[in-house]
Amino acid sequence: MIMSIPVAYNNHLAFPDRPVKLNLPAVELKTPALHCELVRNGRLSLKTAASSSFTGSGAEYSEPLSTTQKKKARKIAGIDQDELVDPKLLADPDSCFCEFKGLQLHHKICDPETEPQDSLHDETISNSSHQTEKLKFPLILLHGFGASLFSWNAVMKRLANVSGSKVLSFDRPAFGLTTRVDNPSNHAPAGSIQDTKPLNPYSMAFSVLATLYFIDFLAAEKAILVGHSAGCLVAAQTYFQAPERVAAMILVAPAIVAPFIPPKKVKANNQEDESNADNIKNPFLSLLSIVSKFSRCIARVLMSLLTGMVNMVNSLYKKALSAFFRSSVAVMLVRMVIGKFGISAVKNAWYDTSKVTDNVLEAYTRPLRAKGWDRALVEFTAEMLASASPESNPPLPESLSEISCPVLIITGDSDRLVPSWNAVRLSQAIPGSHLEVIKKCGHLPHEETPEEFVTIVDNFLNRVFRRVESQPLQAAT
User: What pTM was computed for the model?
Assistant: First the structure.
């Protein structure tokens, strides 16, 4: 507020040469109770009848947040965002890191030959009717969106026990404790050729290459890929990239949109012949048939043009949305969403929420302590949208019928994130696939019902790799 007033000084009225600038808080002042005087430090003070003093700056009346309120505002899902650290400092004693294209990939390996037998022992599996025979192929576990290799902790050693082979799980870029990068769009590993096009570490292509890298890392010719939710997309894309490197796929609560398969209409040949004969006899029907075919051709041309326009608008929309996700506003929104709904989203993935212990929540929120987790999650989402255009990749549902390796699909009957009916359609779209539905189970069968999950996997491996001649894998019905 700017004002100029006379001030009593040494019994004289003094008018200042220029206005006095007063910074006053927004308060309601009653004129009759307002007094003006000069205090000792030479600053103008306004006093009310209640002796409430407002000095020139008004800083005394700014109410600072308490220390507790500030800490609460800086926490996301209970994690203090002022204490973010390097992901390696959050690793477990059995964690491993390896460099791949400039990133430190966090992974764990369970080898039945080096693990203590007590840790591999499982009563449910030990009572199996067949003797455990070592498989030729290791298992690679691929976690879903927002998860990490922790998701496999309950079944990793058990899978190593029933397979007799190495089991490896790793954190996909943007998740878990794998290192993040500042500028993924222009990421180029140190020592790489400058002319090589940068590969976004948060892209599907990078996850596929990382999966193939770990098959080589285990010195294996092929591997059995076990994907959960969005990890099933990585497993399927890895198969289409290098089918000769995939021995089998196990898709758990697969986040793959299954195509709708309409019922086939079979028309008898004699009916078709009779219809053609009628058209020859009746010129009017022949003319009507020609007009009908011409109309269908025009309709197809119009639909093609309309589809092209829709695809163009859709492409522009995805590009705009992708650009938004790479903005600082998107980072703020992601932090707000994770802080508000992160814990409830984890619990919503379970059928029995009483099994979501503090240890489970700690493991799911631990990556929120890693530096750059929020920006990485935003960049991953933006890249996922950018790569979803039809011109960049052929639609996956249209390629499912080309899968020829053994496939096991496992789902929970109470999955609220990816409904079980989608898994049923998926089993119908993949030739020779086998479907198993676990009752009273949500989106995480390998975490919620680990014993039943491992038993199903063990039976699948036994049918496919140990008794392939006597008990061939049958297609799901």
Answer: 0.72
Of 249, 248, 247, which is closest to residue 227 (Cα–Cα)?
A: 249
Quote the CA–CA distance of 30 and 11 in Å, as a whole number: 27
Strand partners of residue 370: 85
CA distance 21 to 2: 5
Closest CA to 85 of 179, 200, 157, 15: 179
Name the token pair of 113.
């030959």
Sign of dihedral through CA atoms 451, 167, 214, 361?
Answer: positive
Give average pLDDT by consecutive 10-residue segment, the chain, 477 residues: 46 48 48 44 45 41 46 74 91 96 95 72 49 82 96 97 96 95 68 63 95 97 97 96 97 90 50 48 62 64 58 57 70 88 93 95 94 91 73 69 96 96 95 96 97 97 72 41
